[in-house]
Amino acid sequence: MKIGVGVMVLLAASAASMTVQAQDAVNPVVSSANEIVVRQSAYIITAAEQMPADKYGYRPTPDQWTYGKIVAHVTQANFGVCGMLTGDSAGKGPAVAETDPKEKLVAVLKQSFDTCKTAMDGLKDASLGGTITYFGGAKKPRARALVELTDDLEDHYSQMASYLRLNSMVPPSAKK
């Protein structure tokens, strides 16, 4: 009996879906957080690429961060927080500054998200109660770093989206 290509694709897709569902059932917290990290990383990288290089010094008011500072901060936070998730307290990544050229900031930003992907791929719900050394040397559960990661990405993407709109650009999350 021959099985058609369409049936084989459907079976493979069903198997992949069951694997994802099984992963979600075993690690619902990490799986949910990973969905947020994947979504926000795509938005943030696209927003970083979208803003023209000459606008990386843009800030809506003198008291607000520049666009370049937001990108540099997200990059450094990703390396630090994702390092906490894996237990790599030295996970600082390459140094970046808000005044670095856009090309460097975007390249290192992408590298920071690769580091987070690796951290998320190895993370299990069962490990979230383990103790990590958090910012300032405080001992916290690993779950604190996971919450920090998702919250920080959503917070700073909202800044980036606002800055894009203030420069007459449509942010990635608003595009169809």
Automatic annotation (TrEMBL):
Q: Which UniProt keywords are listed?
A: Signal
Looking up SUPFAM superfamilies in the UniProt record yields: DinB/YfiT-like putative metalloenzymes
Domain DinB-like intervals = 44-160
Q: What InterPro entries does the entry give?
A: DinB-like, DinB/YfiT-like
Signal peptide bounds? 1-22
From the Swiss-Prot or TrEMBL record, give the protein name. DinB superfamily protein
